[in-house]
């Protein structure tokens, strides 16, 4: 199949590649860019395991063609930590609050929460739950994911957070 | 000693041993997207396999034409049953003693059954080429309803078994019959039921569902033809068993098969069995000499690999007028689908369903199970439960509520009255188990007090009156569930898989500088083994958990074990870990005595060191001992500090718990809102409370889904109508209730550290709590037993049937 030339910025780096027009963004990221952080859980937009940040929006990369991302600015879980390796507040929060178990949903969940906290820096519990409703976790029951996001929000806002994971 | 000397408490705390809410080691890679799951692995020259699947639930295959697919650019091979016959892999054995088609051999028996395997250069081409394989089918009469399976004129599904009147578990009485299994005293139970002052009889169904881990099943096989070695990466909860099966099927010696289970994205029982996809990837790689990857998509996962439950349990209980139970009789019709591919220990065709007497002191009981074939996907896996324990717990917990209602008794009081009492342990159940330990009354009392049970009942009464007066359209339900699980399979005298005893193992090696590598026969799928096994070793050996690395999943390096499912990791491999560590400690004691120049008996263990009795300032820490193990051991002693243990448990463990659900239901919409959910678990000694609570949250969320709507459903043509996440209910953060966790601790007397296992308790315990809450809400309207799942539509229908919308 004839290939199309695309360029995009992924985790701050400019990349260019040839892709088949039908290649999904998730396959492009995982197989051509070797960014295996975003996962595939359904390929039907239901689970959110494939969530990446594209042009300042959370996007399910299983339902976007790579060619649609031509020129886009994309951040995946691999781009969440600081350049010196320091974990983001969310990455730290997920560990501190036991917000993950098998870890399969985690990259998508953290990537989604990252955008959520930019859109709404001080969300209520209900707003967090609604805000991550597009991301399914089969392991944790969400309670500690909510806490992890609250932990990160507090850290980013510079206010103390006293709750423990439960 | 000066003030800088750490106290004993400080030394113990530093270890992050048992009981500590240690943060998880795994999270460091997972939060950065650096986990390595099967589909993340990419090998040079790797090919992709994909299945042509049957659109029919029951049909004869007249002809398969693969020429168009083979002509497509990028397609390497197309395998059908005919191609697998010469290597005798067209059928494969199941764990339950049946056989299963790898690729459809002459006919298909369920929708989406694997018919042909296309191998191509990439996954898109493989998928396209599947469309080009032409299969001519002749539709046959379909059997969907298990209650019709044994009718004389029911269609014959398994022609391969024609004339076979003996199955793996005894007599077959019909062409769609798999087994009949009985346990208990039938005559005495029949007598108890017919003499019962009060009796109930109800058909309690536990519908078909699916574990649906977020990562589907997948495998990557790579045959090195020069060395004759096969490497197989896969989503395997039991990698050693997979290697043994792969060796038996392929004839390649086990030493030349390397099975690797990397990070696994949830299992919940889905990843115990061996699936056609694994076999075809292996065959493809052996034939082509190139790596072949197979990755299931979500629809394939839901419709073809491993359903769970589908038990239909006709239950009778007899009791005195005062509510003392006198007998329990259960008949189960088990729908196994097209092949009996249950992942039960070999001798247990219905798993441990004979735990159905639950937490109650039944003097007599009888259980009978009939397994039947239908045109549905095979499986029958333990979806986060120990081999049919969930079904059994649901059966007895629902039945106790039905009995309570008939007696006009409070369901919690009825349970309290019939509990096995603490002094009765070890307790011999009427169906043959020896319960190890328990204190049921204390647990239920604690739960009732915490949730303020009596006040809730008062509130419920007031609400019922208000409802009758037409002042509210909401009804309130309180669901009580008191489950006893049986986990930790198991003693090899009665538990094996394909003849291999269900022991498990640990191998611990202490390095000269005092860090440790430990390897286990189990395999985590999210249960934090890397974190928690290290805590056991930290406490046993006095070395900081952070210096202990846990490795699992590679059959080349890990000792043989039976894997992780049925909450067996802590009860079995956890015990092996403690026992191996104790061997090391015994050797360390001799080295310490040698270094301290006293006799072995003059030193004693103190958190992280051996000290001379009566002279606490004379000691050697484990780190010092580790170094000495490599350069200064007593005369005649082998150097080094390592041990291995294969632990064959003397008994199963019996975790239990009290779960209470408070629910409000809008009768006009059928929408149920969980107001509170309280989960008290007693899993014996608690290794990491944070991880335990996380397990309880996750298991309760699965139980919530199952009870409230998650279902694998078929139409009358055998089409699966819940085959995508559009129709198959997985709760999001929005619907999921808030979980309140609590605990009591009754250690297992026969386990080296007293731990019982917890992973599955919340799934087992929460389903009856939710279902009882819905049933309890409608009980005052005489609704009768309402079957699961309780989605809003079905609940609305109940209200409609009761005339509440008139
Ligand atoms: S894989 Fe994209 S939403 Fe599930
Ligand atoms: S941690 Fe397993 S799916 Fe979320």
Describe this structure in words.
The complex is a heterodimer of chains A (166) and B (806). Chain A is an alpha+beta fold and 166 residues long. Chain A has two domains: 4-79, Roll (Ubiquitin-like (UB roll)); 89-157, [2Fe-2S]-binding domain (DNA polymerase, domain 1, Orthogonal Bundle), CATH 1.10.150.120. Chain A is built from five helices and five strands; from the N terminus they run ββαβββαααα. In chain A, helix 2 crosses helix 5. With 806 residues, chain B is of the alpha+beta class. In chain B, helix 15 packs across helix 16 (622-629). Chain B folds into three domains: 8-36 and 504-647, Aldehyde oxidase/xanthine dehydrogenase, molybdopterin binding domain (Aldehyde Oxidoreductase, domain 4), CATH 3.30.365; 41-140 and 215-265 and 271-304, Aldehyde oxidase/xanthine dehydrogenase, a/b hammerhead (Aldehyde Oxidoreductase, domain 3, Alpha-Beta Complex), CATH 3.90.1170.50; 389-485 and 653-801, Aldehyde Oxidoreductase, domain 4 (2-Layer Sandwich). Helices cover 28% and strands 25% of the residues of chain B. The interface between A and B is large, with 62 and 58 residues. One FE2/S2 (inorganic) cluster sits between chains A (100-106, 137-140) and B (214, 266, 526).
């Amino acid at each position: 199949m004839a290939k199309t030339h695309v360029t995009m910025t992924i985790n701050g780096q400019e990349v260019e590649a040839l892709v088949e027009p039908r290649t999904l963004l998730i396959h492009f990221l995982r197989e051509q860019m070797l960014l295996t952080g975003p996962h595939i859980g359904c390929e039907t937009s239901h689970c959110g395991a494939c969530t990446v940040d594209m042009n300042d929006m959370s996007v399910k990369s299983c339902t976007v063609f790579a060619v649609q991302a031509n020129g886009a600015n994309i951040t995946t879980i691999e781009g969440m930590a600081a350049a010196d390796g320091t974990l983001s507040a969310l990455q730290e929060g997920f560990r501190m609050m036991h917000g993950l178990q098998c870890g399969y949903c985690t990259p998508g969940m953290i990537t989604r929460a990252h955008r959520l906290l930019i859109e709404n820096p001080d969300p209520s519990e209900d707003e967090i739950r609604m805000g991550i409703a597009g991301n399914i976790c089969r392991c944790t029951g969400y309670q500690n994911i909510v806490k992890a996001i609250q932990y990160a929000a507090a850290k980013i806002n510079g206010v103390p957070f006293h709750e423990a994971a439960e | 000693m000066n003030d800088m000397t750490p106290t004993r408490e400080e030394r113990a705390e530093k270890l992050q041993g048992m009981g500590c809410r240690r943060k998880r080691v795994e999270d460091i890679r997972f939060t950065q997207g650096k986990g390595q799951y099967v589909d993340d692995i990419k090998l040079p020259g790797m090919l992709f396999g994909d299945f042509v699947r049957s659109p029919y639930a029951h049909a004869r295959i007249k002809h398969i034409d693969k020429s168009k697919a083979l002509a497509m650019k990028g397609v390497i091979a197309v395998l059908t049953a005919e191609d697998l016959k010469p290597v005798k892999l067209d059928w494969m054995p199941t764990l339950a003693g049946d056989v299963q088609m790898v690729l459809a051999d002459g006919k298909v028996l369920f929708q989406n059954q694997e018919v042909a395997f296309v191998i191509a250069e990439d996954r898109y081409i493989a998928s396209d080429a599947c469309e080009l394989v032409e299969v001519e089918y002749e539709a046959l009469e379909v059997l969907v309803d298990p209650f019709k399976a044994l009718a004389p004129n029911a269609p014959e599904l398994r022609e391969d078994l024609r004339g076979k009147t003996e199955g793996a578990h005894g007599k077959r009485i019909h062409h769609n019959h798999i087994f009949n299994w009985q346990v208990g005293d039938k005559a005495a139970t029949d007598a108890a039921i017919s003499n019962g002052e009060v009796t109930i009889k109800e058909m309690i169904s536990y519908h078909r569902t699916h574990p649906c881990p977020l990562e589907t099943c997948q495998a990557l096989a790579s045959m090195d033809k020069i060395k004759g070695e096969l490497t197989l990466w896969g989503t395997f909860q039991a990698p050693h068993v997979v290697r043994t099966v792969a060796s038996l099927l392929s004839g390649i010696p086990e030493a030349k098969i390397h099975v690797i289970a990397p990070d696994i994205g949830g299992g919940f029982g889905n990843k115990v069995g061996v699936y056609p996809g694994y076999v075809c990837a292996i065959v493809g790689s052996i034939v082509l000499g190139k790596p072949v990857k197979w990755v299931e998509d979500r629809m394939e996962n839901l419709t073809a690999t491993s359903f769970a439950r589908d038990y239909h349990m006709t239950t009778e209980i007899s009791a005195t007028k005062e509510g003392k139970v006198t007998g329990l009789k259960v008949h189960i019709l088990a729908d196994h689908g097209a092949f009996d591919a249950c992942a039960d220990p070999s001798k247990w065709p219905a798993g441990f369903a004979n735990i159905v007497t639950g937490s109650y002191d039944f003097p007599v009981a009888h259980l009978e199970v009939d397994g039947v074939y239908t045109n549905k996907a095979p499986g029958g896996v333990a979806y986060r439960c120990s081999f049919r324990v969930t079904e059994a717990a649901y059966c007895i917990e629902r039945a106790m509520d039905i009995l309570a209602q008939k007696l006009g008794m409070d369901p919690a009081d009825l349970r309290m009255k019939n509990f096995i009492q603490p002094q009765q342990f070890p307790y011999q159940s009427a169906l043959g188990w020896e319960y190890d330990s328990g204190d049921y009354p204390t647990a239920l009392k604690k739960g009732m007090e915490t949730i303020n049970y009596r006040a809730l009942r008062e509130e419920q009464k007031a609400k019922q009156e208000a409802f009758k007066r037409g002042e509210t359209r909401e009804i309130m339900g309180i669901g009580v569930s008191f489950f006893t699980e049986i986990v930790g399979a198991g003693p090899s005298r009665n538990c094996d898989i394909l003849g291999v005893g269900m022991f498990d193992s640990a191998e611990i090696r202490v390095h000269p500088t005092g860090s440790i590598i430990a390897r286990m026969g189990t395999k985590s799928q999210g249960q934090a083994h890397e974190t928690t096994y290290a805590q056991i070793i930290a406490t046993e050996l006095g070395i900081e958990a952070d210096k202990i690395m846990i490795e699992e999943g590679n059959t080349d390096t890990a000792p043989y074990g039976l894997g992780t499912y049925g909450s067996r990791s802590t009860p079995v491999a956890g015990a092996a870990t403690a026992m191996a560590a104790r061997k090391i400690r015994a050797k360390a004691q001799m080295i310490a005595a040698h270094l301290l120049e006293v006799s072995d008996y003059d030193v004693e263990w103190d958190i992280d060191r051996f000290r001379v009795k009566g002279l606490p300032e004379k000691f050697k820490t484990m780190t010092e001992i580790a170094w000495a193990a490599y350069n200064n051991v007593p005369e005649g002693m082998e150097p080094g500090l390592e041990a291995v243990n294969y632990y064959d448990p003397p008994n199963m463990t019996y975790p239990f718990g009290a779960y209470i659900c408070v629910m409000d239901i809008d009768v006009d919409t059928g929408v149920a809102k969980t107001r509170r959910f309280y989960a008290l678990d007693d899993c014996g000694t608690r290794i990491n409370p944070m991880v335990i609570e996380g397990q309880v949250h996750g298991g309760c969320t699965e139980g919530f889904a199952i009870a409230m709507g998650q279902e694998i459903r078929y139409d009358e043509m055998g089409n699966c109508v819940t085959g995508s996440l559009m129709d198959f209910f997985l709760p999001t953060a929005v619907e999921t209730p808030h979980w309140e966790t609590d605990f009591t601790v009754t250690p297992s007397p026969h386990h080296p550290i007293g731990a019982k296992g917890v992973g599955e308790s919340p799934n087992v315990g929460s389903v009856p709590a939710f279902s009882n809450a819905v049933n309890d809400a409608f009980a005052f309207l005489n609704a009768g037993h309402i079957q699961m799942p309780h989605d809003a539509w079905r609940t609305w229908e109940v209200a409609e049937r009761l005339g509440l919308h008139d």
